[in-house]
Amino acid sequence: MISMELIPIGRIQTPYADIAPFRPDPEDTGEFIIHIEKKYMKAMKGLDEISYIIVYFYFSKSTRTNLLVHPPHLHGKDTGLFASRSPNRINKIGMDIVKVLRVEENLIYTSPMDILDGTPLLDIKPYISEIDNPFEK
Question: Domains in the chain, please, with CATH?
C-alpha cells in the first residue's frame, strides 16, 4: 500500500458554516474567497488572466463514507459513490469549478462555491475548455 501526504496550500472562505448547498445560486450573498498561504504566492502568477479555475479541496468535516448514496437530483434513488458528487468520499477529496472575479495579493475572490467555510485547499488548476470539456466545440 502506498502512503500519501497532502499539504494544504491555503483555506477556503464561504458563508456556509455547517451545510453547503448542493449547487449554490450564482447570486448567493457572502464572500467566497480562496486564501493562499503567503509562501505559495509566486504560484499565483497569471491567475488574474484566467476566467475559471478548478478548486481541489479536502472534505475535512465529512465524517462518514457510504458506498451507496442518494443524490438530490435522483430523487432518493440509490447510486454508487463514484457516480455521485457526494462529499462523503473514501479519500475526502472534492473539486469545484468557479469563476475568478479578482485576485488581490494572496486572495482569490470567486463566484459561489459549494464548500464549507474553513475547508483546506489542496490545489488550483486553470479550467481550459478544450481540455476539461472535450465535448465543447
Answer: 10-62+97-129 (2.40.30.70)
